[in-house]
Amino acid sequence: MTAAININTFDKKILENSNSWPFQEAQKIIQRIGKLSTEKTTIFETGYGPSGLPHIGTFCEVFRTNLVRKAFSLLSNKPSKLICFSDDMDGLRKVPTNVPNQESMKNYIGMPLTKVPDPFGQHNSFGEHNNFRLRSFLDSFEFDYEFYSATECYKSGLFDETLLKILNNYEKIINIILPTLGEERQKTYSPFLPICKKTGKVLEVPIIEINPNNASISYKDPIDDEVITVPVTGGSCKLQWKCDWAMRWSALGVDYEMAGKDLIDSVTLSSKINKQIGSVPPEGFNYELFLDQNGEKISKSKGNGLTIEEWLNYGPQESLSYFMYGNPKRAKRLYFDAIPKSVDEYISHSKNFKFQTEEEKINNPSLYVHNIQPDQVPRNDISISFSLLLNLASVCHAEDPQIIWGFIEKYSPGTIGSENKFLEEMVNFSVVYYNDMIKPNKVYRSPNDQEKKALKELSLGLGKLTQASTGEDVQKLVFSIGKENNFDNLRDWFRSLYEILLGQSDGPRMGSFIALFGIPQTIDLINDALSGKLK
Fold first, then answer.
1. What pLDDT sits at residue 304?
2. Which domain holds residue 485?
């Protein structure tokens, strides 16, 4: 993990006037602190439930909260801390569909996640496995955070004082929650969930007596109807999650926590409970959700959408951070096709960064990819896009990065991968992405008569170009042939080139692609298409 946040070189007034969302959020926290007149360390929190493998949404919440914390530090220069909280004492409600040994896991439904055996056989429990995976990703991005386990917090007594406040306000809290529940659930609801001493399961049972004087509750054992009395402290009980959320805010002194828009009602309810026990709810905002390729909300139990590992298998860390930064108030489709777009947009923004004024830089997304540290934004002078490399890999059927480097050396003599680590990463990722994502879906089609005529003219036109011809010269040639052959829409002409020559429905700027691939090689490719060899 990184050391303490460093102040950078931006003028304070520029930071204060920034319209970027991390600085807008940071201003809200500064106003909160002013109203509370507190000098305590400002606490930022993110929470997740390890009931399934951590997905990108979990990572994103930490990334975004980290940016708000950095913006807050730049504006206020006050001490702060980021807590990543795992609700690993929750009972396992259902077996995730994307883990092994599912049949054996069914035997542990209702058990705390830190008591469910790890189906992967790598850690002491399923909760520990998921905690480890999340922490590994956070550490690889060098986030500065402290990790809290609900199991440890409950059992260590860290929450005891606040749990007693919940018990002493039991009836008032019940009255806050019951109107939000259905008629049947109202009959059995209690904010306290006892941990059964016989089975070890988290029980959702009616509480028949509360005992504030000895800090305990009583319930009937669902197996033998025996009345059981347990303390509410020391890890003998946990709280229903909305009440748990409010308790955690109070116990940890949380000042800021964001949440998805699906939790707006929960935030409202937890805030009311938080106030009831004498605390001030944290600041925060509700972000839009990530969606899978079908437009459905991504879920840990379903395993839909992308995992963090999958993204980082096909794109650099910077591309994931870039995707996470962009407009959190807008829903985003999180699937493999988001990776090339994110890589190329990141390259474009980082290339522009060095030419911008301070006012422009503070709104440049690449600055936030690098934790609002201007000296960390690379001077990217890469003239080759990731999309272009993908299409080159596609047309070359590349299974080895050296094939791509051969074309890059011709296109830009003297380019050496080891001297540009980001370009080297892009080349390696392009080969992996092509073989896994593009190659299995390539479908070439034969040209119709209009397209055959245009392709023959393009081949002849390319043959007349010289070695000094640029990508712009090639692009003009492609445009002119499309117009001369009466394509109603030039987009149809370019789509034809993609489908016939590349075996896909979309593709690169043809001038740049042909310049990189090579004019003689493109002529051969066109001739292969005309003779039916590609199909």
1. 63
2. 443-535
